[in-house]
Structures are given as C-alpha cells and as structure tokens.
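This part of the workshop introduces the protein records we will be handling. Each record describes a single protein and holds just a pair of labelled lines. Instead of coordinates, the fold is spelled out as a row of discrete tokens. To make this concrete, we reproduce a full record directly below:
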Amino acid sequence: MYIEVKDAVKTFKQNSGEFTALDHVSLDIERGEFICLLGPSGCGKSTLLNAIAGFDKITEGSIKINGEEVTQPSIHNVTIFQNYGLLPWRSVLKNVELGLEAKKIPKEERREIAEKYIDLVGLSEFKNSHPNQLSGGMQQRVSIARALAVSPDIIFMDEPFGALDAITRMKLQDDILNISKQENKTIIFVTHDIEEAVFLADRIVVMTPNPGRIKSVVTVPLTHYRERTSEDFLLVRNKIFELFNMKPDDNIEYFI
C-alpha cells in the first residue's frame, strides 16, 4: 500500500484540557488515487491532510508513505492551499518556475517545463502577466501549474476552490479531474462540499467531528467523465447525504 495511516490520534492542548482532533483514524491509499476528505468544520480533515503531508506530527499511531514513516514534509510532495501562495512580483512563468529553480533545473529546461504546465492549465497567453492581473480562478490555475511542474508524487489540496464563485469552482473541478487522470497523480483533497467530492474522487473519506473519526469510506463507481445530473452521480451524492442524516435540498453550502 502506498499511503498507510494506522490508528492515528492527534490531540491539542487547550485551556480547558485536551481536544482530540483525530481519534484512531486508519486509512490506506493506493498510488494514483484521488481521495477526498469530506466533512464539516472540526471533523479533522485538514488535520489528517497536514499529518500525512508531514506538517503536523500525530500524537499516537503511524503514518507511512511508500513504507517510510512520515516525520516531516517531503520535497517529493506539494500542497496547494486556498490562498494561492503566488509571489506578486513574479510573472506567471516565473511563479511556475519557482520550484524548478529550487531543484536547480537549467534555465532553458526550466522554461520549457513551466510553459508545458502553463499550457496544460490554459494560461499560455497570460504567462507574462502578474498575479494582480489575474482572476482568483486563474491564480489558482497558476498554483496548480507550479505544483505539477516539479513532478510531485503526491498533491495535497486543502479546500483549494473554497474562495471561488460557483461557476469558476466547477470549471476548476473539471480541470483538476482531467489533469489528475492525464498526469496519474495521487491527490488528497479536503472539501466540505458533497457534490465536489462526488465529482472528483475515486473514494470519499466521510469524517465526523467531536472527536474526528472516519465514519465511512465510499467508493465512487463513476467514469472519468462525470455528469452532475446523471442518475449514477445523484445516487452516490444521496448516499453521502444519508451518512450525514441530511437531504439533498438542504443548504448547498453543506458544512460551514
């Protein structure tokens, strides 16, 4: 198994005592899978992502990637956050080249790789633009191109589309799903949006709070090309709603 989480516990000290963010969480992930961690605020989904990524140490249990214990972030993996993280003084091209510079890739090769991924996310005509000249969705595409350019083993995504409007969000969902299949990357994606999880994931890890636990792992038996209104899509979506004791006509922002 590529990623193995076994009996992971994470506690935080608070004035009133200890808060358990993760309570004996176990999860196996295969190479090339697209996994969505889904649940309301406080269920531990971001804590679990940060632990697998090596940003946060668990209190008990173990996390291994490719047989190696996770003790710190790896240069072989990247994380994409909601706030894009672009350098405002650098162009799109120079932002995408950033990780390649750190790897000391020669200038011409660096430019060739960066342009490949800028084209992949549909921003070739904006490669010389700066972040303040781009929309939020375009900036997130730049951050995705920058992540892909360094050829990571795993891409961690913590609610990367949460700040975007609904139409841009749906377009980026299409983009990242297509890219994940083309590039065959392992992706762990945090979301509180049920339909987003069903649209993207190979498997959905349904988490519940107080303390953070995995309630169910739901396999999404849909093809790569997914129709949001198809019967099969709605069946999976409704199954997730049932796990949360909710109905599909409840507020579209399911978990705040």
Q: What stands out?
A: The mean pLDDT is 90. Strands lie at 3-14, 17-29, 34-38, 60-65, 68-69, 77-80, 154-158, 186-191, 203-208, 213-219. The helical segments are 45-53, 92-96, 98-102, 107-120, 136-149, 166-183, 194-200, 231-243. The longest strand covers residues 17-29.
